[in-house]
Write a structure and sequence with these properties.
Layout lengths: L4 H8 L3 H9 L6 H14 L5 H8 L4 E6 L7 H14 L3 E6 L4 H11 L5 E5 L5 H7 L5 E4 L7 E5 L1 H14 L4 E5 L6 H17 L2 E4 L7 H6 L1 H6 L4 E4 L2 H13 L9 E6 L2 H5 L5 E4 L2 H18 L7 E4 L2 E3 L9 H6 L1
Parallel strand pairs: 1-2, 1-3, 3-4, 4-5, 5-11, 6-7, 6-8, 8-9, 9-10
Antiparallel strand pairs: 10-12
Helix pairs in contact: 1-2, 1-3, 5-14, 8-9
Protein name: LacI family transcriptional regulator
GO molecular function, one term: DNA-binding transcription factor activity
Keywords: DNA-binding, Transcription, Transcription regulation
Length: 334
């Protein structure tokens, strides 16, 4: 016979409602009691009925997680961390990929809103106005975008960009270029603002190039424009763009870092395996995933009385092989 909630209550020496709260609202139960109930439930093989609990609590114990491109190595660590954090809180996560398409992103949000208690939006491509309108239906936490009325987790890419500009200037580079990502991207806007300010303060020239697609193909396609910009140091939107750019520059007859120094953003595995190994700005994606889940569950518990929260995570520059000292010969060759 199936083990019931009453069996767990009897063996634990507590009321049925306490067992129910242990699984639906664990923060309302003392640690000692919660641990005893969970141990008994595990020993008896009890598993709560999610459908019945949803009818009782009005919650699905599901969360939505929407990313711009699941193939981008930036996202998997965030997804895994968010899923693990949610699982510890007895929540499941539905993951959806928008393929950088804002219309598909809106469609996915509208679909998920009916099936989850809250949604994590990671690097969304929708406008803030649309996100604010959709946020009326279900609590949101937004990663790497400021949206009015939503809790936010930001990875301080500006901090890393300033460190990257300082690194290039210290190596003797005075003609710099920024290769941004998609138009309207919060990360691109933060990078441009930080790079412009840091370059001006250091007395270096900065050329902001046309936005590139956030993939290796985007970097590859931008190689000719980068080579023609006359820069000796380039900061890219992400590691994929940087790796594509390095390959494109090679096809242009230019070597990294001998002719140009290249910096990426993310500190993803491909950049660490590339030759040359990529100098990059590390983004705390796993920490962002865990924090976003915590903020979202807090918003779910608080309901309409919740107060939006802003959390900012530090970034750092990791120096590897794709940056080197500027050379007069290299500058003249460009």
């Amino acid at each position: 016979m199936a083990v019931t909630i009453r069996d767990v209550a009897r063996e634990s020496g507590v009321h049925v409602s306490t067992v129910s709260r242990t699984f639906s609202s664990p923060h309302l139960v003392s640690v000692q009691t919660r641990n005893r109930v969970l141990a008994v439930a595990e020993g008896l093989g009890y598993r709560p009925n999610r459908a019945a609990r949803a009818l009782t609590t009005g919650r699905t114990h599901n969360l939505g997680l929407i990313v711009a491109d699941i193939a981008n190595p930036f996202f998997p660590p965030l997804i895994k961390a968010a899923q693990a954090q949610a699982r510890e809180r007895d929540y499941h996560v539905f993951v959806a990929d928008t393929d950088e398409n804002p219309l598909l992103e809106q469609e996915l949000i509208e679909t998920l809103c009916k099936q989850v208690d809250g949604v994590l939006l990671c690097s969304p491509r929708l406008s803030n106005r649309v996100i604010e309108r959709l946020g009326v239906q279900v609590p949101f936490v937004v990663v790497n975008r400021r949206v009015k009325g939503s809790a936010t987790v930001l990875m301080d890419v500006g901090q890393g960009v300033r460190a990257g500009i300082a690194h290039l200037v210290e190596l003797g580079h005075r003609r710099l270029a920024l290769l941004p990502g998609p138009s309207g991207s919060w990360t691109s806007e933060e990078m441009q603002a930080a790079a412009t300010a840091a370059a001006a303060e250091a007395g270096a020239d900065l050329t902001v190039l046309r936005p590139a697609g956030p993939t290796e193909q985007g970097g590859l396609a931008a190689a000719q424009a980068v080579a023609g910009a006359g820069a000796t140091g380039v900061l890219c939107y992400n590691d994929l763009v940087a790796l594509g750019l390095i390959e494109g520059l090679r096809k242009q007859g230019l070597c990294v870092p001998e002719d140009l120094s290249v910096i990426g953003v993310d500190d993803s595995l491909p950049g660490r395996l590339n030759r040359p190994k990529l100098t990059t700005i590390t983004m705390p994606t796993a920490a962002a995933g865990r924090m976003a889940v915590d903020l979202l569950l807090a918003a779910v518990s608080a309901g309409e009385s919740g107060i939006p929260t802003l959390a900012r995570l530090e970034t750092t520059l990791v120096v590897r092989e794709s940056t080197g000292r500027a050379r007069e010969a290299a500058r003249r060759s460009l």
